Amino acid sequence: MKANSAKDITADLPSYSRVIMNNKWIIVVVILAILVVGIVLVAMYYGTYNNLVSLEVSVDEKWAQVQQELQRRYDLMPQNFTSTMKALSSRTSRSLGASGRLR
Predict the structure, then answer these.
(1) What integer pLDDT is reported at residue 74 of this predicted model?
(2) What's the N-to-C CA distance of the chain in angstroms?
(3) Are 8 and 2 contacting, i.e. CB atoms less than 8 angstroms apart?
(4) Rounded Cα gap, residues 27 and 21, in angstroms
(5) Burial 50-89 (b: 16+ CB within 10 A, else e)
(6) Residue-level pLDDT, tens digit, the chain, 103 residues
(7) HEC readout, the chain
(8) Contact 1, 8 (CB under 8 A)
(9) Structure confidence at residue 1 (pLDDT)
C-alpha cells in the first residue's frame, strides 16, 4: 500500500461508482421481474375467473335442458293417464255388459 491514503481513495472512486451503478441495475431488473410476475399472475387470475364464469353458465344451460325435459314428461303424464283410463273404462264396460248379458 502507498503511504498516501487520499490518493488511494480517489483511485477507488470510479470502481466504487461502477459497483453502485451495477447494484442499481440489479435493483431495477429485480423490480421489473416482480412487476412482470405480478402482471402474469393477474392475467392468469382473470383468465381463470372468466373460464369459471363460462363454465357456470354452461352448467346452468344444461340444467335448464334437464328441467325442460322433466317438464315435458310431466306435461305428457296426464294425457297418457287419461287415455289409459278411457281405454280401461271402455274395456271394463264391455266386459261388464257381456257378463250381464250372459246371466
Answers:
(1) 84
(2) 143
(3) yes
(4) 10
(5) eeeeeeeeeeeeeeeeeeeeeeeeeeeeeeeeeeeeeeee
(6) 445 555 555 555 556 566 666 778 888 899 999 999 999 999 999 889 999 999 999 999 999 999 999 999 888 777 777 778 888 887 777 777 777 777 6
(7) CCCCHHHHHHHHHHHHHHHHHHHHHHHHHHHHHHHHHHHHHHHHHHHHHHHHHHHHHHHHHHHHHHHHHHHHHHHHHHHHHHHHHHHHHHHHHHHHHHHHHHC
(8) yes
(9) 47
Q: How far apart are CA 100 and CA 96, in angstroms?
A: 6
C-alpha cell belonging to residue 87: 281405454
- Count how many Cα atoms sit within 13 Å of the Cα of residue 26 in the half-sphere of its side chain: 6
